[in-house]
Design brief:
419 residues; alpha/beta; Glycerol-3-phosphate (1)-acyltransferase; 15 helices
Length: 419
């Protein structure tokens, strides 16, 4: 019960926290087999919780680092959320870890016997970066263990997928998830080769498949790639009120740009054009948003919503405010920053639900319920208003360049279109 309550809460709050969510290929997940979902891992607990929420209503078990499982209520709570501990060699006493992992493998076998989904991060730890690190071989070994327990009858499907955040540690993030087609260990078994060779090949192929579903950036190219990505994002015209997208078109365009930059020479015309453009943006103190002036309907939107939505935001913003203060003061690991930021905002959101609806219901009856519902969700139009006002300020500074920024931007686009 707690699991589904949290899962539904995440779905609702994601509408406030994220700007847009794109999810594609979920139909590739088999429904009649045990499934390992395998992904890159860059954003701490938020990675697993968001995937679990977005695969609603299918329940998803998640392997997480075992050292977060404390005694007593913490252990009970985490297991109630369908989290399975996995202890790494570097996490404390190796003998105790081995015993604890054996219990987790027993649970995994029970879950797989019921054809359930288990999410695993084969990189084994989280790092805030847009690149895939080498995968560990633990997942393939677990599959072999599960199959041996079932006399080779169990067929575990591995579905590689990519988790893509447009940026980290900031509200109004965008999330893109894309699932590849499933693979099976038997696909890598060749007569005359050892079991180890089979799971080594499987691990490498799963890594390649994850890479094909994510924006993978070479170290040192983060800034130049982000500048190029902001340009192509602004070239898209997304419906302002649409939040969920069942498409990977956006992701494919971003992957294409990142791959083009990875393949380019350090002194290429593409890199020179992007660098010149970013330098000009800094010189005129503007941003990519300034390339497109506001349309008439956007002025009307601001006129209608800015006052009522501002009042809503004055109340709803405190969860994000306190979350940001907490993580900046206490959180030392970057990969946990957004997870805790998101979690504090979610907790505050539920306080507003628990307190607000009874209070306004008592004071104003059924009209109070409806009024509080509308008031809470007006915080979303406020965020759109802020985006538009930022665009207005950026466009004002953009015009000071007297066409220089437009020319440099067109040069970058022409270089990006050469593929």
């Amino acid at each position: 019960m707690l699991y589904y309550f949290i899962k539904f809460s995440l779905l609702l709050y994601s509408r406030i926290y994220f700007k847009r969510i794109y999810i594609y290929g979920a139909s590739n997940i088999p429904q009649d087999k045990p499934v390992f979902l395998a992904s890159n891992h860059s954003n701490g607990f938020l990675d697993g919780t968001m995937v679990s929420a977005l695969l609603f209503p299918k329940a998803t078990r998640i392997f997480v680092r075992g050292d977060v499982f404390g005694p007593g209520w913490a252990n009970f709570l985490l297991r109630s959320l369908k989290l399975i501990p996995i202890y790494r060699a570097r996490d404390g006493d190796s003998r105790q870890n081995a015993k604890s992992n054996n219990r987790s493998f027993d649970q995994l076998y029970e879950e797989f016997q019921k054809n359930r989904i288990v999410l695993i991060f084969p990189e084994a730890d989280a790092q805030i970066e847009k690149r895939l690190r080498p995968l560990k071989k633990g997942m393939a070994r677990m599959i072999i263990d599960m199959q041996s327990r079932d006399d080779g009858k169990m067929e575990v499907a591995v579905v590689p997928f990519g988790l893509n955040y447009t940026h980290y540690k900031r509200h109004r993030n965008e999330l893109m998830i894309s699932f590849s087609t499933p693979v099976y260990l038997k696909d890598y078994v060749v007569e005359g080769e050892t079991e180890r060779e089979a799971f080594n090949k499987m691990t490498l192929d799963v890594g390649e498949r994850i890479k094909r579903e994510m924006v993978d950036v070479n170290q040192g190219d983060e800034a130049i790639t982000e500048t190029a990505l902001r340009i192509i994002r602004k070239e898209r015209s997304e419906p302002i009120l649409k939040f969920w997208f069942r498409s990977n078109e956006r992701l494919r365009s971003e992957i294409a740009v990142s791959e083009q930059i990875k393949a380019s020479d350090k002194n290429s015309e593409l890199r020179k054009a992007i660098t010149a453009y970013q330098t000009a943006l800094d010189t005129y103190k503007t941003k990519e948003e300034g390339s497109k002036p506001l349309k008439f309907w956007q002025y009307l939107f601001i006129l209608v919503f800015i006052i009522p939505s501002s009042l809503s935001w004055l109340v709803m913003r405190w969860g994000l405010f306190f979350g940001k203060r907490l993580v900046e003061a206490k959180v030392k690991l970057d990969e946990l920053y957004e997870s805790i930021y998101f979690g504090v905002g979610l907790a505050y959101n539920w306080i507003m639900v628990i307190v607000g609806y009874p209070l306004f219901g008592i004071l104003f009856g059924w009209k109070g319920f409806i009024g509080w519902f509308v008031f809470r969700w007006l915080s979303i139009p406020y965020q759109h208003c802020m985006d538009m006002l930022q665009q207005f300020r950026a466009a004002r500074n953009w015009r000071k360049s007297n066409g220089e920024l437009d020319s440099l931007r067109e040069t970058v686009l022409s270089q990006l279109n050469r593929s």
